[in-house]
Specification:
2 copies of one chain form a homodimer. Chain A is 28% helix and 37% strand. Chain A has 4 helices and 7 strands. The first copy, chain A, is globular, with a radius of gyration of 15 Å.
């Protein structure tokens, strides 16, 4: 598996993974009504740094890295990750997470914040904790989970040094 | 003082207040480099509900009300407030805050969340607490304060019913 910069040529793969990841309605705010255009812009739009994980020529995951806020909050990074469900359990998320932290450090960010980690996404939360993140906020009933109804979401954070 | 829907005709007043509010660099992420176009779009862009407080024909404050997230997070509102510094101490912020909570309830939101309340903005925090908000998250050193350096920011939240 290699991790490399995403390009416009990855758009179709990104859309395929995006659709598969949001379909269960258990981790991302995007609904099934999200268009291919919006999904691709989310990862490949202007000002967005994105990387893909490629395994034997196949894209199996991606992440985006952006400032969490403009101006006086732009020293904190934000990132979003998606892994092809058929590639789960192979450490793709962890490899992308470690790559992203390194990339953010190189870009000069001082910290990374995830604004909306669904509280029932125990695998995701466990991974972020392993990578040094902690829960710094709890947003009560902020996520409309497709099968569980309204559940909490967490704000997670770590400094990069 | 009346509170009414903002219109395109309020753009110049909104820009004047916006510039005055962000100038000290102590409450908003916007820097002095923010353009009039961006400032006006922040309050009057597509899909944004905004209101102004008008006193004897003069605009002295405004707020915007939007979904805090798309899709599965869109039942939580987000709002931003600005009051002309020369009108401070007259209850404009409180009146706008109460109006906004009522408006959000009417629009069907279930809760309101502020994502980035600067921890040194004691007057703002006191007002939001009076209006029923509580701090649900602390973002360490997330705001580059113009005179104090990096300070924490809070996530504040309240349910509407």
């Amino acid at each position: 598996m290699i991790i490399r910069r995403a390009t416009a040529a990855d758009a179709a793969s990104i859309w395929t993974i995006f659709r598969a990841v949001i379909a269960p309605g258990d981790t991302y705010s995007f609904t099934a009504a999200t268009t291919e255009r919006d999904a691709v812009a989310y990862f490949l739009g202007p000002g967005i740094t994105s990387f893909v994980a490629e395994d034997e020529g196949r894209i199996i995951g991606m992440y985006k890295l952006i400032p969490n806020r403009i101006g006086r909050g732009s020293h904190v990074a934000n990132a979003s990750f998606m892994v092809d469900p058929s590639a789960h359990g192979r450490g793709v998320g962890r490899a992308l997470g470690e790559h992203c932290l390194q990339e953010a450090l190189q870009q000069g960010y001082e910290a990374m914040q995830f604004n909306f980690v669904v509280s029932t996404n125990t695998a995701g939360i466990a991974l972020w904790k392993k990578l040094g993140f902690e829960i710094v906020g709890t947003l009560p009933k902020a996520f409309e989970h497709a099968t569980l109804g309204k559940v909490d979401a967490y704000v997670m954070h770590r400094f990069l040094r």
